[in-house]
Structures are given as C-alpha cells and as structure tokens.
Known about the structure:
Blueprint: E1 23-25, E2 28-32, E3 36-42, E4 53-63, E5 81-87, E6 90-98, E7 101-105, E8 110-113, E9 118-122, E10 127-132, E11 140-149, E12 160-165, E13 170-173, E14 176-182, E15 184-185, E16 188-189, E17 198-205, E18 210-214, E19 220-231, E20 242-246, E21 251-268, E22 276-278, E23 281-283, H1 286-302
Domain Pirin C-terminal: 201-298
Protein name: Pirin family protein
Cofactor: Fe cation
Amino acid sequence: xxxxxxxxxxxxxxxxxxxxxxxxxxxxxxxxxxxxxxxxxxxxxxxxxxxxxxxxxxxxxxxxxxxxxxxxxxxxxxxxxxxxxxxxxxxxxxxxxxxxxxxxxxxxxxxxxxxxxxxxxxxxxxxxxxxxxxxxxxxxxxxxxxxxxxxxxxxxxxxxxxxxxxxxxxxxxxxxxxxxxxxxxxxxxxxxxxxxxxxxxxxxxxxxxxxxxxxxxxxxxxxxxxxxxxxxxxxxxxxxxxxxxxxxxxxxxxxxxxxxxxxxxxxxxxxxxxxxxxxxxxxxxxxxxxxxxxxxxxxxxxxxxxxxxxxxxxxxxxxxxxxxxxxxxxxxxxxx
Length: 336
C-alpha cells in the first residue's frame, strides 16, 4: 500500500526502547486516492515504530458494492485502487480479515491477497507494486497493511517476489485463538521470514475472557483492535485503536469485552538503526531519499528503469512522487 499524502512528513527513528507502559496511540484518517480511507496508527505522533514495524494502516470494514462519492460529488472507484508506486528498504506485510485484493509488482508477481493468508513483499533496493479490488471481489473489504523496516545488512538486496503463506500455525490459549503470522508466540513459530526479531499475530478472545498473553521481555509490543474492545491496564481501547505496552514484560493480561475482541499483536526488538522515512521510501539519509525519488520519477518518464521497472499487467498510470520538502530531511527521536 502507498502513502498517498500530498505532503508526507519525514519520519526518522533513533531506536531507543522503553520498559512496560500502557499508552494509547491515536490513529488519523488518511484517504488513499478517491476510494479507500484508512486509519494510520504508525508512524504516530508519539511513537514511530514498534520493533521493526514502522507503518500500520487499518482499513474497513467497507462495503465496496457501490462506488464512493468524494467531497466534490465525483464518483470514485469500487473498493481499493492503488496504482503502481515504489518502495525501498522495507517489507510490505498484507493481512485481510474480509475481502480480496489483486497484487501485481515489478518483479512479475501476480497474486490475490485473501483472509488468513500472510502476504510479504521484500522491496530491497527498489520495487513497484499495485493493489486493486477486482470486479468479482467479495462485498466487504477489511484489512491491515504494514511495513517492516529492513536492517542495513539486507536493505539494499535484490527485491524478492511476493510470497503468500496460507498454512500458518495456530494455537488455543486461555479462551483465545491465535494465528501466528510472523515470529513466535507461546513457543509456536511462523514460517514467514523476518530479518530482525519480530512478532505478528491475529488474536481472537472469547467474550468476557481474560487472556494472559505470553511475551518476550526483550521485545516491545502493541495491540491493534480490529473488532470489539478489550481492557489492558487502565485503558479500554475499541475498534481501530492501538495500545503500546512497551518492553520488559513476561506477559500482559487483556480482558475481552462482553462481545469478545479480535486484535493484532505486533512486536519485536527495538530497531536500533536510524531511519529516514518519507513517502514510500525508507533510507538512512536525505541523499538516499532524493536518489530514490529521482529514480522513480525517471522510471515513470522512461517506462521503467533498472531500479524501478514498471508493473506488468497493470492498466493505468503509476503514481508520481510528491515534491520533496524545501529543507533537508533530518533525524528525529523514535518516541516523543
């Protein structure tokens, strides 16, 4: 998924970890094109990363059976329409609760993202991809799009094909059902690749039950509520809200509401490398971001280039990059 903001803010992490906390991370609404509204939880005004997770968009559930009408009265597209756009130095992680999305990328992958299947694309030095709702997609679209920052040792590798993991491990735990997307939960490990210690899980807790969720003390964690609500510490986050619970815990207790709760558990060791995030690029300096933007703009004009080939099979124009800010992109702390 692309960051389609016309004036994207620079986001840089310096990687300082924290101990146990309970902190609400308020999302903000971002419009992707004319068709999809998302709640952006990371980067957040107070915290820019959780482990190597550096970008979290939660969208839906949306009825995509009719075309949206924007604030100008212009009909938009049916469902999601994100034209080809670039990425560098990250992995995209796609997870659907309902619906279907068609994916195409510049290394030739053509796949469908479906509920319960983890889909990972590794950008390396540079990749472009598109995401659209097909005419035959189910009527409801609900999911999360996440980015994982790649460490310096692998961030400039050749981009990897889009990989789907349909047979993910599951476990039952204190009245909860857990699907382990990435990393390890309660000794159960996902086959999906990770380049830093990372955890991602889809957790459903029965109504009124208390789940003692086992954690790794060296990791920091957050929970994103995607259905229902829960209580953790003194907070009762509901749909579309995220709570950061920090590091240094062996476990954390979460209490499901009377209607139950479903949430994503995201975590990992605090990412210690300094990052510069701007638009769809991750780098380590202002100069890297400028070079990536210039390469993408050149690719659009030339119909592709060595760093950013065009996306085969996509019928439409790619997204141009927004203008860079007038000042150099500078580091900022990981958390304010």
